[in-house]
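Hello,

Following up on my earlier ticket. Below are the two sequence lines again, exactly as submitted.
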Amino acid sequence: MRRKRKPAARRFTTGAVLLSLLLLERAASAVTVQMQANKSSINLADTIDVHVAVQGGTEQIDPPPLEGEGFQVLSSGSQQSIQIINGRQSSTLVFTYRLRPTRAGTLRIPPVKVQIGGQTYQSNRGVTVEVQQIARIDDFFLELESSAKALYLQQEFTVTLKIYARRLSGSYADADPFASQGGTWPQLNIPWLEEMEGFDADPPKQYLESLHPNDRGSGFPINNYRWREFLNEYPFLFPLPRSTAARKASGGKEYGYFVYTLEKRFRAAKLGAFEFAPAVARGVIFVDGGARPQPREFVALSESLPVTVKDVPGDGRPATYTGAIGQFTISASVARDKAFVGEPMTLSLQVAGEGKLEAIAPIPLKIQKQLAEDFRIHEEPETGAIDKKTRTKTFTYGIRPNKAGIAAIPPIEFSYFDPREEKFVTIQTAEVPIIVEAGKTIGSTDVVSGAEAPAARINKAVERALYPNYIEPEALIARAPESRLGWPRLWLLAGPPAVYLVLLLVTWRRRRLAADPRIRRSRGAARKAHVSLKEAEAACRQGKYLEAYQAVHQAITQLIADRLDLPAAGMTPREAMEALARKKIAAEAHGRMAALLTACDQARYGLAAQEEAAVHQAILAARSLLKELEPCLH
Amino acid sequence: MPPLMARFLLIAAAALAFSPPAGIFSQTTAAPRENSAPAGAADDPHVIFSEANRRFEEARSDEDLIRAAEGYRRLLDRGLKNSQLYYNLGNTYLRLRDHGQAILNFRRALLYQPDHAKAIAMLEYARQQVSLAERFDTGGESPILRTLFFWHYGLAFSTRLEALILALLFFWILLAARLFTRLPYHRFLIAALLAVAIALGVSLGAQLLLQRGAEAVIVAKEAEVRSGNGPDFDLVFKHPLPSGIEVKILESRAHWHFVEFPGGVEGWILASAVEEIGD
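Thanks for your patience. The regenerated structure is below:
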C-alpha cells in the first residue's frame, strides 16, 4: 500500500508557492522568514499546506511550532536548497505543514517565530484562511463511534466508522447507490486509520489487508491507497461490510439506508485526552429523481471522536494485581508432580485472555499465604514468556517444598482490572496435586537461605532448570567449525559421478567387443584350440590316432584362422605357414609348426606313425606351440 | 555378473541411507587433550572447566557468573573450541542478562554443530528477550512463497546440502544400475531424484549467491546507529539499539562498520559495539 503522490494541481500550487517564496528572498547574508498558505478559503473537509521559508540561516534549525487554534497538524516536513552564485552560498530551508481545520470560521495562524543562533526571527506576516462549514445532507452521512464509554490505560476498544448511504427506490432498491461498471465510489479520508497518537493498534499493512482490498469491482477508495501496474496506478477498493438501517432525515421523514461499517481495534497506550479526527467522504451518490437515479456530488464529514484515557483506580487495588487490564483466566502446572522435601520444583503460571499481556508483571508468590507456608520460593521471574498465537503469558518460578506430605500446590490468586465492569476482579488457579516425600539428604547448596535473595540471584529458572551447562570432559575436545561443504561432502558429491563414468566406459567397451564378430572370434580362438587338443587326447586314449591327428591339426589351424580372421575350413598347412610367416613368427617355432602340420597332414594319408607315443608327442608339441603362438597372433 | 553388480550397488545405497548421518557428513578434527600445564593445577583445562561449572551451578550473584564466563573464555582462548563450550558461555551470559553475548555465543556454538538442539532453543529464547520483531519490520516472503518453496525457507543450509548429497547419491546409483538391469519405476525414480536434486541445488546456490556481509551481533549495551562513519552524522534510529540485535557487516572503515539490520535498514555503527560471529 502506498500513498498517491500529490495530484498535479497540488504539485503545481506547491511549486508556485515555493518559487514565490524564493523570489521574495533578500540578500543572502540576512536571515528572513516567510510564511504562506496554498489556499485562502477551504471547507472543513479540506486541508491546507502552510510553508515557512527560512532563508540565510546556516545553523541547524528546529521546525518552528505553529501557534493559534482551530486546526490540527496532520504532517510536517522540510526541504533545503543551496545556491552558489559567484562563489556566494545561500541556503533556504522550507518547512511544510499540512493542516486540517477543526472548526468553521476564520482560521488565523500568527507570524511564526524561528530560533537561529540564539536570536529569534519572525515572519513578516501570518496566515488567515476562511473555513466553510459543510452542510449535512440526508443522502450520505458519516458517524464515528467508540465501543467503550470510559477508557482505561491498556484497555482495548473498537472505533467504528459508519457510512450511511440512502437507498434508491424501486428496482434499484438493492443496488449500492454509487457508480458501477468502472465508476468510482466516494473517496474516504480517515486520518487515524494508519496510526493514532496515544494508541496501539495492529500494523497498518496487516490491518488494511484484513479489509480485503481489491483492485477491480466495487468498494470505497480509502486514503488514496493505490497499486501500480506497469506505468499506471489504480486505487485499492475496500468492500466494507454492508447492512441496512432506517433513519429519520432532517425533514422528519424516515428513509432506508445502507450502512457500510469500518472497524479498527485500538489499545490505549497513554493517559490523557485525545481526539479521533473526523472522517471525510467526497464523491458522487445516486439519488432518486425522475425515471432514473440522478448523480449528486457531495462532501460529508463525520463528527470527531473525543476519547479520554484514565488510569486504573488506585483505591482498592488488590495486592495480587500486577497490571492486567482486560478479562483473563489463570492456570498453574508443575514440571514434576513428585519431589523430596527441599528439592526444587518448577511451577508455571499461565495467564490467558483479552488484554495487553506485555503489561502484566510476574505474580508475586510470597504474598500467597498458603503457598508461602508450604514452599520456599527461591526464584521468581523478572518477566514472563508470551505466546502470541495462544495469547498466553507464562511465568516460571522455582519453589521447594518445606515439609513432607504436601498434597497439592494451593490455589494462587491473580487480580486484573475489568474495564467493562470498571472494577478489580480476583481469580485463582485450581489446586495442582503433587506428592512430597521426606528422606532425601539435602546438600548445603540445596538449602534455601532464609535471607532475601539478592536481585542477581533471581535468575531465570527457565535457563537453569531446563538447559543446564555441559559438564562432561568431552566439552574440552577442540573441534573444527563445521564446514559448509568440507572434503567428505565434496567426495560424496564428486565420487558417484566419477564412479558412474568409469562404469559407463567399462560397459561401453564390453558391449563394443561383444558386438564385433571378428573380435569375438579372436577372443574365443585359444579356448577352442585347447578344446580341440583335449579331444585329440581323448581320441589318442581310445586308440583313434587318425582322429587325434585331425584334432591336433584343427587346433592349430583354428587358432591361426580365428586370430588372423581367415577361413578355417580347408586351411592347408601351406596356407597356415604363409599366414604365420606374415606375422614374423620365430624361425625355430615356424619350423616346428611346419613339421607338426606336415605330420598331421601325412597321418590323413597313412604316412605318419599311427602309434600312441607319436600321437602323444604331436599333442604335446601342439600344446607347446599354442602357448608360443597365442601372444603373437593378434 | 551384471545383476550381481546391480545388487551390490543397491546394497551400498541402502547401507549409506541407513548409516548415521554424522558418520557421513560431520567433520571433526580431534584435538589432543591438554595435560597439566607446568604452571600448576590452576592452568589445567579440567580444573578451569570444573571451576567455571561450579560457579555457574552455585551462582549466588552476578559476580559468580562473570567468573564462570571468564573460565569458559580462558578455555576458548586456548583453542579448545567446540559447540559445548560456546553453549555454556552463552548460557552464562543469558543468566547475566547480557543478551548480546548470549546470542553471539549460541550462534558460535551452531557454527561448530549446526544441529545443536539446545543451542537452537536457547538462541530462540535469547532472541525473544531482545524482541527483535517489535523493533524491526523484518517483512519476509509471502506465505505462498514460503509454502511453495518450503524446503528453501524451512530447512537449514546443512540439511538441504545433506539431502542434496543423498539425492545425488541415489540418482547416480540408480543410473549406474540401469547400465546392468532395469528396476520397476526405474526411469521415474531417476527423474524424481534429479528433480529433487535440482530443487535443492537451486535453493543452495541462490542462498550462497544472495548472501552478503559477515554476520555479527551487537554486544554493546547501547549502540547508536548513524548515517555516516562518524559521531557527527545523523542518527538512523531515534534511540540507541540494545545488545543482541543480529546484523551483517557490509563494509569496515576505521573504527566503524557499515551494517545491515533485519528488514534491510543500513547504517554505521562503532566497530567496538559489534562482534563477528565467525571467530
